[in-house]
Write a structure and sequence with these properties.
Chitinase A, domain 3; 15 helices; alpha+beta; about 45% helix
Length: about 450
């Protein structure tokens, strides 16, 4: 009987449909493609389409042509990953899955709305995401292994640049290099004590059963990322929090208890355990930030303005002032030079700068030092007083070797990677059994050789 069932399943696969009995109903599941011995189901395509719509991923063409081809390419890479025994750490997969689910909940408003939007329970979504994240990571690892030996010399980069048609040379927008000096005025003791008193009151309300921790977080927490989720941070590892927060959060054992008050660079917190899973935890927190008094901000601006005049008078340089006075640990030891987190370079397009900095730099010339201003520290979200020096302004221009060597080198290496991957994929398509069912074949595919 078992042998007959296996034969029947094989016949149904070859015919392009499998019928699964569900009580008195017969639910049809359609096979769209077969790659090697792996089917691509219509339901897979529909689920991928829904995810792309949610993520607003642009689809270049008919989604019922584009998505199956993408899934087929993924299966070819995963076959290679199996042969290469590529494994992805469970902790990394777990972290990305929980981060994705937390993002869904944040954007849609609640767990129930997420389940309604995706028409799937959270446990089922977690399982699907786990497979998706693991597969994506395995594909990326195969691609990395295939292209890891790419090396480029200055001669390679020059030859590559010389072959770019004139009308295809990329335009490099206006860029600037800046230095910054920041001072954080001391927070008054009274403000700190007021924040601690409020947090102690919240703890008392929770312990007496008068309020839910999550409700208080929604109403009062100053962490915009978690407040609307009731303070929930999602499953995280010890290294994902600042040390002071981790030390307390990972010692919590009773979900009914509230932690002591924890001070970090972001402010003051109380924490409540939701769940522990191995070396990861899910907690809620309420963050309050003691505010700097207006008079202290005004005094800091006045002191900074005097400092600016001293620099203009040649008493010392901007760089010397940064070394001795700046409280921004990220730039102080680099003479105040701001570094672009996106590129790792010191050059910024205007849109990449903090808004308050961009506003000052916009009308400055190289060597100019701005008047002091109040800005929000992008790392801690605290108010600080700053002034910036414009080091260099690079006008928008067509890329050239002398000014944009790193950009062109990146283009060359990216082009080489794509060539290697395209060659590998073409051979894999040629050597693999592939069948596309009727109704899925009438497409302009990005790659050749699918239909045999």
């Amino acid at each position: 009987m078992k042998i007959k069932s296996i034969i029947l399943l094989g016949v149904l696969l070859l015919s392009g449909a499998v019928y699964v009995s569900a009580g008195t109903d017969n639910v049809a599941e359609e096979v769209a493609w077969v790659v090697g011995d792996q089917p691509i189901w219509k339901s897979e395509i529909e689920e991928a389409y829904q995810n792309m719509l949610y993520e607003r991923v642009p689809i270049a063409g008919d989604p019922y042509c584009v998505i199956p081809e993408q899934l087929a390419i993924e299966k070819l890479y995963l076959h290679q990953a199996d042969m290469d025994t590529v494994e992805i750490p469970d902790a990394m997969v777990f972290s990305q899955v929980e981060a994705t689910l937390n993002n869904y909940i944040l954007n849609l408003g609640s767990k129930e709305k997420v389940e309604q939007y995706f028409n799937k329970s959270l446990p089922a979504m977690r399982e699907s995401l786990r497979e998706m994240v693991r597969n994506r990571a395995r594909v990326q690892e195969v691609q990395r292994n295939l292209t890891k030996n790419i090396k480029s010399t200055p001669a390679d980069v020059r030859r590559f640049f010389e072959k770019i048609p004139t009308d295809s040379v990329p335009w490099v927008p206006l860029q600037v290099e800046t230095q910054i000096l920041t001072v954080a005025p001391a927070v008054p003791r009274e403000a700190i004590e007021d924040v601690k008193a409020r947090l102690r009151n919240f703890t008392e309300q929770v312990n007496k059963g008068e309020s839910l921790f999550s409700t208080l977080a929604i109403l009062y927490s100053e962490d915009p990322g978690s407040a609307q989720r009731g303070g929930e941070l999602g499953f995280s590892g010890r290294g994902e929090f600042v040390p002071e927060f981790s030390a307390v959060a990972f010692n919590l054992n009773d979900p009914k208890k509230v932690s002591k008050i924890v001070e970090t660079e972001y402010g003051f917190h109380i924490i409540q355990l939701i769940e522990k899973r191995g070396d990861r935890i899910n907690v809620r927190h309420i963050l309050l930030k003691p505010k700097v008094a207006e008079k202290d901000l005004t005094e800091a601006i006045n002191r900074m303005d005097s400092l600016r005049h001293d620099i203009s008078d040649g008493k010392f340089t901007f760089e010397e002032a940064v070394t001795f006075l700046s409280q921004d640990k990220n730039t102080r030891n680099n003479k105040g030079r701001m570094v672009n987190d996106n590129t790792g370079s010191t050059r910024f397009q205007m849109a990449e700068l903090p808004q308050e900095v961009a506003k000052r730099v916009d009308g400055m010339e190289p060597g100019d030092i701005s008047e002091p201003f109040i800005m929000t520290d992008p790392k801690t979200n605290h108010e600080v007083v700053a002034m910036v020096k414009l080091t260099e302004r690079i006008p928008g221009h067509k890329a050239n070797i002398s000014d944009d060597f790193q950009l062109i080198k990146n283009m060359y290496e990216s082009s080489r990677r794509q060539e290697i991957l395209d060659t590998w994929l073409a051979k894999k398509i040629k050597d693999t059994y592939i069948r596309i069912e009727d109704g899925w074949r009438n497409c302009e595919f990005q790659n050749k050789g699918w239909i045999k």
